[in-house]
Structures are given as C-alpha cells and as structure tokens.
Amino acid sequence: VNIGWYPACSGLLMPGILPFPPPKVRATHPDCSIVLYFQEQEAECLEIIRSESQTPAPPGPSGQRGCLTEWDGVSCWSAVPVGQSQAVACPDILHVFKKSKALIQRNCTESGWSFPSPPYYNACELEAIGSNNDTEAKASYFVTMKVLYTCGYSTSLAALFLAIGIFSCFRKLHCTRNSIHIHFFASFILRGAAVFIKDAVLFSDESIDHCTMSTVNCKAAIAFFQYSVLANFYWLLVEGMYLQTLLLLTFTSDRRYIWWYILIGWGVPMLTVCVWVVTRLQYDNHGCWDDYTSLYWWVIKAPILLAVFVNFLIFLNVTRMLAQKIRSPDISKNYKQQYMRLTKSTLLLIPLFGVHYVVFALFPEHIGVDARLYFELVLGSYQGFLVALLYCFLNGEVQAEIKRNWGKWQSSMESNVFNLATQDFTA
Hints:
Blueprint lengths: L32 H22 L15 E2 L4 E2 L7 E5 L13 E7 L2 E2 L6 H4 L8 H38 L6 H27 L13 H33 L8 H27 L14 H30 L5 H29 L7 H13 L1 H11 L2 H31 L1
Antiparallel strand pairs: 1-2, 3-4, 4-5
Helix pairs in contact: 3-4, 3-9, 3-10, 4-5, 4-6, 4-10, 5-6, 5-7, 5-8, 7-8
Keywords: Cell membrane, Disulfide bond, G-protein coupled receptor, Glycoprotein, Membrane, Receptor, Transducer, Transmembrane, Transmembrane helix
Subcellular location: Cell membrane
Family: Belongs to the G-protein coupled receptor 2 family.
C-alpha cells in the first residue's frame, strides 16, 4: 500500500464526454477498477463498431442503415433503424452511482442519435463523495503521513548503517550470529530504499494517471519493493531458525550453516519474485503490477504468510525450550542469563513483525485502508531502527566492546600526550 495512489487519479478518463464532472476517486485498488470498467466497456463497444464496419449494409428501401453503434463515454448504444429508440440503465458501479431505476433513452433520427434523455447527471445520481474541506483534510492527512514515514525510514537507515559499521569494525564481534544480524539489517535497508525508489518512480509526477500507468520502470520498482519485503520476512525467519538451532545444539554453531541461511534469506525471495514477474508477464501484464486485488498477488502473499506461520511455530517452540532450560537445576545462573539475553530480542520481533500482516491478510485490500497504511508505512518505517536498537545498540556484548575500545583509545591518547609533554620538557 502506498499513499501516493490516493490523490493521483482524479477522474474517469472521460472529462470531455461525460455531461457531469467526473467523480474524484481515491486511486487505490480496487477503486482504479472504475477506470478499468469503462475501458473494458469502451473496448467491447469499439470491437462491435469495427465488426459492423467490415460487414456490408443490408439493402433497404431507402438505402439507409439508420444509427450505427456508438460509444458516448458512458454507455454503448447498439445500432437501430431510423425512427426507433433505445434505453439503457445507469452503469452499475458501486460507490460511484446510486442505484436508480431510471432509464436513459436516445432516439435514432435521420440526423443521427439524439441527446440522452434524461441526461446522465439527472438519471444517475452520484454517491456523496465529500466536500472540498474533506478532500483538503484527506490531502493534508496523506502529506503528514508521508512526512512521518519519510522521517521513519531515514532514521532507520541511519541506525542500520551505523549498526552494520559497528559489527564490521570490531573483530571480536565477527561471528555467525552477528553475520545473520548484518544480513537482517541489509534487508531493512533494501526495504527503506525500495519505498523511496517507488515513490520517486510512481508518484513524482502528479499529472500521470496512475490507474493506467504501465512502464518498465514502475514495474521494476514494484518488483524490487516486493523482493525487499519478502527478504525482510525471510531474514526474520532465519533469525528465528538460528535461535532455535542454538538452543537445540547448546550454543554450538557451525559457520557452514551460514550459506543455507543466505540461501533462505535472499534466494527464496528471489525465486518467488521471479515466478511472480513471469506470471504477471504471461497472464496479467496490466498496469504497474501493484493491483493487490489480483489473484496473482497470492504468489507474493502466500510465501510471506508461510514465513510468518513458521516463525510463530518457532516462537512457541523456543518459548517452551527456554522455560525448560530455566527450570532445569543443571543450568547455572550465568547460562540462564545468556539464554534470556539471546532470546529476548528475537522473541519480541517475531510477533511484532508478523501479527499485523496476518490480521490484514485475512481481510480484502480495501478494508481498513487507513489502519493498514498507518501500520505498514508509519509504524513499519521505524522497524529498522527498532531492530538496530535491540540487536546492536542495547546488546551488552556490543556495549562492552565499544567501552573496551574507547578505553584503549583514551589510554593511547593520554600516552601520546604524556610523551609529547615529556619530549618538550626534556628538550
């Protein structure tokens, strides 16, 4: 979900044809289906017109065919002889037109089709779409939200880069556990970068009709965003798997497993996105591939739900093993503290990152849009900062190593100052 979709699509692509001002719709899917509905109706009508133009006219008493099939921007009027009339109902579009039993009629005259009677704006009453104040309030709300998630992702990116630098600089922190943390941080960096790239590609130009936008750049931006989201969830899964492995193997690890973790964290999302891209190219290569109501969206959603489900099972199993080890009289107090320090971060992150996704996955994409936007954009933008805080900045091992190196640096500086002072005195 991205808030840039809301103010982007302002109408029904028929401003010069509709006899009433086109309703301003929120261009989130499925609201863009309003535009697609009229496009499909127009395409079907134009196909009928083409077939009629290729069919020779039947001989008549006056040699006149009457009124040909016509698309007026709202409805398709079938060909009828002169003197006859035709009636159509209002377009059946939910949340746009109120259901009305009134029919719009047009007569076929010698000079062609007459004007619709009654006009569309009288026969098809628009649903209430809010006042200008409501529209301005919505626009202000979305601007505020964009500022919040931009600040959130910027803060997260800065914290994550700093955390990666700390893990990389201190040799004592080089281990399999911290290598997994670095990959987890990198997935958050990709996710933040993907959000900024998507905003830059899709929503930098407000004059673009995002309901019909279908370029290579926008599809690549969406594919990269989906890959970063998948990698994010699968590296959280790797964190849970590694934690469970440590508890099962009594804190023994083998660096050979790191390649399996990398394959799961980066390889599975890449394979999933490749399958999704090929599927969209073959069967649903329309728009910018961000139609979350499409059935092919489950190619992305199902692996994420699987990762969340497996992580939940790991959460339950780790909690059970941790309770057993803490109660065991054979485990010393120091080991119990190690178990607690090791598990608290991952046990906090697993439910925090997975619960809201499962809740929203059970409802259609257009339900609870405001709450979905708030969780996924505003709160989600600070998840990277929270991860860096838990795994790095509040990590006792990291703090001890920083203090040790800071003490060594201070001692070195004091020694240098003393040597300089001594040299000056003796000189």
